[in-house]
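Researcher: Next entry: Rossmann fold flavoprotein (Lysobacter niastensis).
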Amino acid sequence: MTGHFDVLIVGGGAAGLMCALTAGQRGKRVLVVEHANRVGKKILMSGGGRCNFTNTGTTPANFLSANPHFCKSALARFTPWHFIDMVERHGIAYHEKELGQLFCDVSSKLIVKMLVDECHAAGVRIETSCSVERMTHGESEDAAFRLHTTHGNFAAPALVVASGGLSIPSMGATGFGYELAKQFGHAVLPTRAGLVPLTLSGKHQERLADLSGVALPVTARCNGRAFSNYMLVTHRGLSGPAILQISSYWQPGDDLRLDLLPQHDALQALQDWQRERPAAELKTVLGDAMPKRFAQRLCELWLPNRPMKQYNMPQLREMAQVLSDWSLVASGTEGYRTAEVTLGGVDTDELSSSTMQSRRVPGLYFIGEVIDVTGWLGGYNFQWAWASGHAAGNAV
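Model: Predicted structure:
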């Protein structure tokens, strides 16, 4: 099988499908090549099967990149409201969970169906279970890019790389996009797992392992960043939204601190408890402010447990310091296996921020997770996929 197109898109995920339908609606002949057996696999599994498809509070400040300005143009031109319009046009019911996060009421399958339906309506061709064996460039003017695949050879003057990052290899993630970028002389910034559970080792793990399943609100702080949400203790370490968020800013050896009483001024709370419940033990009053098992462990290992009336002011200050600035020594992360995103990627210095086109090779575009732009937890990475895909789709 062979074919000539206007645009070849490698990767049928969120960014690739958005780019395809946008280009197709402009009358371009588009082919999407996806090596997995179906498109949108990460969309399907996201948000517990409900797909946190955008965040109404999206701003450039919600993204990590070596160039924090790069994402501004695309995000400004395709906002969460543009995507919501499409969702509503397809009659997909959705709700806001928290902090601007929008989820499908029923299933993430509806988002994939919407994107595929839009692609088909725009005449886009999608080839699944189709692996790229090699790629050549510049053989002729009308077909600058030629993909040699397991389904045949395809050519086009524009090639869009939307192959994602390294996160969740069980979903088919590979480093193909990075290899392609390097083949064309693009710099690829070091990659690592982001939005990922942290692991503990040695005595740190032993102290918490049997509390697996316990969750509590915290404020996690690292490298000048802070996130307030829930922390979940796991068999191997810590997870939950607050930990996943801070993991993108943490690297081994970095100082990580947790406020275990984020809704309170710790010292004021201890003084209030001392005045109101002088005979109660510390573990008892803490157990009313956080899970009892966690409070008990704190009082076994980090805090002296005795009746509240027995503490003097210096001791209360010391305990308040522990509770509001608890030091956590993480040994690593769970890695790409469970990471929601990949940090790093194709260097944005060599891409146009308005079109996503390579500054090195005309007709070559990079979009989505393969680029060095990574969002926070909460729908931001999908919004980057839609925005970058839309930018390239309007430029190819």
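Model: Note for the record: The first strand starts at residue 2 and ends at 4.
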